[in-house]
Amino acid sequence: MEYLVSEDKIAKIRRYRSQRVLDYIQENGFDFLLIWDYGNTRYAFDIYPAFHYESANAFHGYLISKTGEVTIFLSDAFDERHQYHPGGLYDPAKFGTVWTVNPEVRSAGSESYLRSVPTRYANLVAEALAEQGGAKRIGVDTFADFRAYQELQKLVPDTEFVGVGFDLARLRVKKSDEEIELMEASCEVHNKVLWQAMSEAKPGMTDFELSSRVAQLFALENSVEKHCLNLTYSYEPGGAMGMIWSPIGRVYKEGEAITSDVGIMTFGGSVTDYGRCRILGKPSTELWDAYYWHVTNYHEIVSKIKPGMRGSDMVQMFIDAHEAKGMPLVMLGHGIGTMMDELPQLNPADKQEWDPPIEENMVYCIEPTCVAEDPNLGPQLLWHEDQWVMTKDGFRRLAPLSYFDIDDKDLATMS
Fold first, then answer.
1. Domain, as residue range, for 396
2. Within-domain flag for 14
């Protein structure tokens, strides 16, 4: 395991994130915050819950008092603590922590949630509240099980529960300078792996082989804590958004476009999300023209986005350009931070629930996706995704990864 920036900067990241959560609790008059969502737990504690299908209903959670005392709820069967975890939650002496940790880890048991776990979990939370003087107002980001929530309401009937998931997601949008530095270093690692794996693809190879190669290369990186092979390989009419999201045994052909969309998480709590498209061998004139336009138009539009504009303004610029070209936009992008897909989401204004001005130190994954028609091979998915941070002058691409067969000097953002 290795951090990509100094431990002093990792400590500053933890203090910045944790203090913002603690300030939120105090500013909103909560006696406690009860959080379970992994984006929020990752942000507050640099802890990433290890969910898998058997533990999806095993209760995890963190009760945080307004004074910063943390009570931990875990499952016996799926204890999240492990000796190599770099986070600060379970070791109060770890650099950067702002929390006081209750040494008693409360277990919700290892039984099926269909039996006693929801009631036991509610009882443990109620006991912890009583030990700390009770609560008039608790902020809750989500519950693993609605029955557990109902049981807890019965046990503390005079307590007001306030949903805070959306607020906490918005809290995570503004990055510190150290966070951005770590994100950029993480992007460098991601770039190296994605470029190498995609460069090795050739006609006759299957998408299974490429996904395995990506996984292997990430596994060899000491800084990578987790990786997600959210691979986007082909267009199939009638599929979800017209796309196949995972390997299906596809055999690559000469002249066709292949794409991959991959996310990683590096130690210190930085997530990256990159997508790349390349054409194998010699493309048709029609496909090459579409591919070249897709990349250059992407950068031309991004170069025009300035602080104060809204995400929906950028979305509309992409929609207009793609419709004029005859290749309608399929999707555009999202924010990123402790999760791969965060607020703000990039949607048209009439479909945008939260459309804040784009401010300095906001980071976006911009991934204009469309379908081009090849006269011989049929519909081809074009997908390029990069991470961008807003500066006082406009967007800056984090750790640029070049595009296959296109010179960076042709891009408006590189001038």
1. 177-414
2. yes
Residue type, 77: A
Residue 78 sits in a domain whose CATH number is 3.40.350.10
Task: State the pLDDT at residue 293.
Answer: 97
> 344: cis peptide before it, omega within 30°?
yes
Beta-carbon count within 10 A of 171 CB: 19
Domain boundary (171, 195, 217) is at 171
Whether the pLDDT of residue 167 is over 90: the answer is: yes
343-to-196, 203, 319, 335, 347 alpha-carbon distances in Å: 30, 38, 20, 5, 11
**Which residue blocks in 73-160 are alpha helix, DSSP H?**
117-131, 146-155
Q: What is the pLDDT of residue 52?
A: 37
pLDDT tens per residue across span 239-254: 555 666 678 888 999 9
Domain harbouring 299, CATH code: 3.90.230.10
Residues 153 and 194 in one domain: no
pLDDT tens digits, 25-45: 999 999 999 988 878 888 888
| 142 membership: H or E segment, kind and range | none
Q: Which spans in 165-229 are helix H?
A: 165-171, 177-200, 207-219
Pair type for strands 386-390 and 378-383: unpaired
Interval 224-280: pLDDT, tens: 887 776 666 666 665 555 666 678 888 999 999 998 888 888 888 889 998 899 999
Sheet strands side by side (includes 270-279): 224-228, 257-266, 270-279
Q: Say if CB 287 and CB 255 are below 8 A apart.
A: yes
Q: Which CA distances in Å does 70 have to 32, 45, 122?
A: 10, 10, 17
Q: What is the pLDDT of residues 71-85, one digit of tens each?
A: 887 665 544 443 334
Q: Does residue 74 form part of some domain?
A: yes
Rounded Cα distance between 61 and 135, Å, is: 17
Q: Which of 114, 137, 171 is the last residue of a domain?
A: 171
